[in-house]
Amino acid sequence: MNDHPDVPPPLPVQAAPSPARALRRLFLTLFLRGRTSRGLKRETAPKSIGSKLALTLVIYALVGGFMSMALINRPVFVSALYLHSMTLVFLGMFVAASAGEILFNKDEADILMHRPVTPRAMLWAKIAVLVQVSLWLAGAFNLAGLFTGALSAHPVWLFPIIHALSTACEALFCTGCIVLVYQLCLRWFGREKMEGMMTGTQIVVAVGAVLLGQLGPQLIGRHGLNFDAVSVWWINFLPPAWFACLDDAVAGTGRAGSWMMGALGLAVTGIVLWLAFGKLARDYETGLQALNEASSAPRRGGGRRRLIDKLVKLPPLSWWLRDSVSRSSFLLTAAYLSRDRDVKLRVYPGIAPMLVMPFIFLLQPQSSARAGAGAPDFMSGFGIAFSGAYLGLIPYMALILIRYSQQWQAGDLFRVAPISGPAPLCHGARRAVLLFLALPMLVIFGVIVYFVARDSAHLALFIPGIIALPIYAMIPCLGGKAVPFSLPTEESKSTTRGLSMMGVMLISCLLAFASTLSWAYGFFRWLILGETILVVGIYFALRATVAKASWPRME
Amino acid sequence: MISVCSLSKHYGAQVAVNELSFEVPAGQILGFLGPNGAGKSTTLKMLTGMLEPTGGGATIAGFDLCAQTIEVKRRVGFVPESGAVFESLTGLEYLEMVAALYNIPEAAARERIRQFIAFFDLSFQTLTDKLLGAYSKGMRRKVVITSALLHNPPVVFFDEPLDGLDANAAVGFKTLIQTLAKEGKTIVYSSHILDVVERVCDRVIIIDKGRLLVDGRPDELVAAYGSGTLEKLFTQLTGGAELQRRAEDFAKTFRP
């Protein structure tokens, strides 16, 4: 460069902060603050970037502490297995939900790709942040377990040390696996398919994590909480068992089998890290460039949209969507639910784990046979009624989640249009969610009950849940708040949503209980009649309230 | 300073940039023009190392674009059309982060940032306290321009830099780039505001469908084609005259 006389000399390099450190700091700040400032509900910078994380860490520590209470005086392997299983559940969900957004953000290409940093450096900085936060969360979750685990049947002071190390390994393994999945998706399927794969990956990981969380304790419980890795051979195929074996080898029985499985865990972790963070880093560079390119390939899904365009003009949809504003909102919601990466990544993985519980109920009707004669029938019926009532969570959650989009500013279009209020937009979105999300799930639940659970006798117990669906779908529309894609994504992180979801689950339980009781005592038809009258009344009252809603204030 | 040779970018069968070749010496302001979808932004993204060319290559500040991408990036400043920034950082945090990526010492970066603040008439308190998401579009654009010039690059690419700037800031900015060119910097200026290009640029390139149409001094090109203004020349070369006629016909359909 300096042999070109017309080139001004570059700035002196002395005691400059390292670019790698700057990138790590940047991605950590962005991770903790979010990428858009409106979601922070303030214009000025927060004093501490860790304030949001602190609350999460406290919650993780409390949940972990509560769970580890059950582990006092258990064998080291059982305590460690339980802790590692739950750590994997929570970390898996967290990393799967965060990795896609952190690794492949389209906006950052314009900001960073022309700077003198390599994609590998960016990948390392992002992974460092993911690993750092994973370690914090894993540490908080296992904090109490370090001590309760030490109070095992044969207390060993080494447990806290080895468990801290094995938890760190597990956090690395979990992060590495998810990053590896994204890299492989990119390598094998290319950028176009990867967007869909990212949604699929998140759903699989989230559902898997919840399933493991639900079934893991049951499986452990079946073996009397006093088994070891040798007596239940198949448990050695589960990754948490590898790390539990490490604990058992150092601070427990010290058997050769535990040492071998512990070594296997370390070796697999090493291989995963080498593949994800080293070997496939070049694919990441390609992926970043691909995200930056305007794709010339014809957009897939256009045929589906044309089909929907035709269907909305035909009965019965044309009757249901008479109003042109509702119809537009319906089509917009349908398009985003099938096309937009950001919306898909939020909606489907957000809903999928919620649906695991009814599946577990449906697939284990005979699990309560031990409860005595008559109980199987009641419990099987309750499972079906609960699944039906729980369906309400789909439109409820989906309508809350589709309010958020990275293109939220485009929602100003609705305010500019001559529409008196947000009600018709909410109704369009509500109907799209009912048709494209709730209805298919209803069919899937029905098929499971009919063919898998082999219980057609209780199929009618779905009806109370189906009747209540319109109410669940109307609640998020109150106050005109279900205008699709009109809020920035950062506002989607809300703690009150968890509470309202608990409320919906409670109501679902009550409805399922009432349905099952009425079925058992022969007044099910009266329940249906009463519920229908009640739902119609509430529905029209809510609808009237939504119709009066005015545009929420712009901040 | 910039030497582009048969630069091409293909997306499958579609050709975005087709064997583009040109040279820009130090101290020149090149107007890089073309209608929407002509391949301007793709070319700029390739020249800044953001996209890998499908064919051809370029040398920037003496470094090969494909083989020495990082060295090229060290010597290039880029103001992208999107004006994207990390909205949840304050202006100062953002600029300090950019400075660190170029290995600029903290004290030198602060000093340079202060100079830009003074030039753009920004308040230091705004820069330290307010998140970029709360900035007006013009203020955000000023931060993006600052971030492109912070490391004193010999080559600067501007893609619609005036978007969002008020009239006074725009005048100041035009003077700034003319002075920077006099100081020896090479500037590539892409814009749809043709009268500004005509006044500011020493030379103009017009591309369409990824191909180079004309290359020359604005006054010479206007004289050679007898079009009167650069805008008329542009419409003449890129089918704008036909669009003008269609616009008149279309406007007539709005008659009550």
Helix-and-strand structural type of chain B: alpha/beta
Task: Name the helix and strand elements of chain A from N-terminus to C-terminus, one letter apiece.
Answer: HHHHHHHHHHHHHHHHHHHHH
Distance between the termini of chain A: 50 Å
Helix fraction of chain B, binned, reads 40-55%
- Percent strand of chain B equals 15-25%
Q: Poorly predicted ranges of chain A (pLDDT <50, ≥5 residues)?
A: 1-13, 36-41, 294-298, 367-376
| Mean pLDDT across all amino acids of chain A | 77
- Based on Cα principal axes, name the global outline of chain A: globular
If you compute it from the alpha carbons, what radius of gyration of chain A comes out, rounded to the nearest whole angstrom? 26 Å
Helix coverage percent of chain A: 55-70%
| Whole-angstrom Rg of chain B | 19 Å
Count every helix of chain B, treating DSSP H or I runs of 4 or more residues as helices: 11
Return the structural class of chain A.
mainly alpha
Structure characterization notes:
The complex is a heterodimer of chains A (555) and B (256). Chain A has 555 residues and is an all-alpha fold. Chain A is 69% helix and 0% strand. Chain A has 21 helices and no strands. Chain A has helices spanning 19-33, 51-68, 76-103, 108-112, 119-150, 159-222, 239-251, 256-279, 281-292, 302-311, 317-320, 324-339, 341-351, 356-363, 375-390, 393-401, 412-416, 423-452, 463-474, 496-520, 524-548. Residues 1-13, 36-41, 294-298 and 367-376 of chain A have low confidence and may be disordered. By secondary structure, chain B is an alpha/beta fold. In chain B, 43% of the residues lie in helices and 23% in strands. Chain B contains eleven helices and ten strands. In chain B, the strands form two sheets. In chain B, strands 6-7-8-3-9-10 form a six-stranded mixed β-sheet, sandwiched between helices. Chain B starts with a strand and ends with a helix. The mean pLDDT of chain B is 89. At the A-B interface, α1 and α4 of A face α2 and α3 of B.
